[in-house]
Amino acid sequence: xxxxxxxxxxxxxxxxxxxxxxxxxxxxxxxxxxxxxxxxxxxxxxxxxxxxxxxxxxxxxxxxxxxxxxxxxxxxxxxxxxxxxxxxxxxxxxxxxxxxxxxxxxxxxxxxxxxxxxxxxxxxxxxxxxxxxxxxxxxxxxxxxxxxxxxxxxxxxxxxxxxxxxxxxxxxxxxxxxxxxxxxxxxxxxxxxxxxxxxxxxxxxxxxxxxxxxxxxxxxxxxxxxxxxxxxxxxxxxxxxxxxxxxxxxxxxxxxxxxxxxxxxxxxxxxxxxxxxxxxxxxxxxxxxxxxxxxxxxxxxxxxxxxxxxxxxxxxxxxxxxxxxxxxxxxxxxxxxxxxxx
Length: 342
Ligand code: NCD
What we know:
This protein is an alpha/beta fold. It has helices at residues 12-29, 54-65, 86-95, 110-117, 135-153, 177-188, 217-222, 246-253, 257-265, 287-290, 297-316, 328-341; strands spanning 43-48, 69-74, 100-105, 123-129, 166-170, 192-196, 212-214, 227-230, 272-274.
């Protein structure tokens, strides 16, 4: 694979290859000297047409830890605000010999356009396009889940899997590229996904996605979940009223203090609470939930660097998807699980 544009098209082998490589990268980030020479002399451009804190910093840290040169380009304050097109911007980057372009754009499909255009030669990584996809976020979420469950089973996470885990993704699914990328990836990895949202915040055609759909967060929790991923209410993409009031939203679909206590009452002692950030505290998630020991919010941010190092490294070394660890991974995992269970 030359580009990382979506998880929809990512094979199980390539996904596991990224997760396993990210484990190796995590070992580097835990060292005192957090740097590898792997991408010395290569140039990574962060091309951000939309606001970002975590993702941009994370890609920058990832590229620098691999010794690449990094150019950060934010659309605000650039010639884009003077009306320069994506094509002209891309060709400017090409003239600077970019090896990889990490792009975040408000329009769904912009990274694909860049990859297909022939305007540039670089590898393209989608860092979030409109409401479409955010593949590295889903990969870092899967990495976080995999680490959590392998630690619980007392096995190493490399090669282990998350098949059969019950994941609820709750909130503003309609506007969420994180939800979409997670549904495809988690399905590929064999997890069972339930989307939980008010009907107004579910996209048309959701019934064709490989997941269940529920309108009731409490029922979903009661059925048993291993992870609850809360989505940000994306006010900036809402041009109409999608729910009666913030109070009503947080009461029905927010992960509030009562639901946090409910996990204990339901005996779900290992269930984790995830959020990609930025959080609207008090709306989709309460502070007590966000800061509780169940929360993986900061772990997700930390893991993001390792996963992005893996993606950059594999794409720029030309190895992504070429030598997938085959399906032996699954066989091995199941035997691991049986061992851990017995
Ligand atoms: C997400 C995004 O930008 O899509 N955030 C992120 O990348 N950490 C989710 C969001 O903005 O709600």
